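Hello everyone,

My group is preparing for a crystallization screen and wants a predicted model to guide construct design. The compound we'll soak is fe (ii) ion. Before spending weeks at the bench, it would help to have a computed complex in hand. I've included the protein sequence and the ligand's SMILES below. Output in structure-token form would be ideal because that's what our pipeline reads.
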Amino acid sequence: MNAVISAADIPRGRGPDDDDPLERIATALRETGYIVLPAPLPPALLGALLRHFRSLDQSRFQTAGIGREDDHQLNQFVRTDEIYWLDRSNPAVSAYLDSMETLRLGLNRRLFLGLFDYECHYAHYQRGSFYKKHLDAFKGSTNRVVSTVLYLTPNWQPRDGGELQIYAPIGGDTDEGMSHRVIEKVAPRFGQMVIFLSEEFPHEVLTSHRSRYSVTGWFRVNNSLGEQLDPPR
Ligand SMILES: O=C(O)CCC(=O)C(=O)O
Ligand SMILES: [Fe+2]
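Reply:
Good plan to model first. Here are the tokens for the complex, ready for your pipeline.
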């Protein structure tokens, strides 16, 4: 896939699949359900995305919702980020969507997921913002199958917080609902990307101590149960 991963990202000398980024992502989703990619996209694209993100007036961002729940007060306990839905009107966003289209086709070819489209938004976590533990999709009640988050926070430092904390997949742990065992902490470092199965992994954004920039997206299937959008747009 042209832009979705760089050679530097690929550990050498393990197996034939390692040379093909799409293969590596598909294998990870099949075997562990998620993958963290330190630098899958070209720096020029990342820079253009961040410039576009920052050029948008803050007033064009909306307080993010949580599924059907439209109670602003309640939402504020769960998440305090602000989002901006993306389309192809900006060239950098359009290039990013091209990469995600390559990924979509590559995953469909390898995993037969039947991914139908991709929707994404910028998310801005101002200082003090968080998103409590949640699932992006509940089995049988959504059309979101694969979640992606691309981080655009420049010069992120550990003291800045805002890590994505991923919990053990549901079913694989003792709990029926949300599991409590942290299996991964992903730094929202510029250029880093995480891809995971939407229905499997509870996750949480820890409080960010500075402005945190990201692009969150979902590959969806086209099923009749898909009227629930989280967040509603
Ligand atoms: O920004 C992140 O690390 C995750 C965001 C997230 O979980 C969401 O928007 O559903
Ligand atoms: Fe999420």
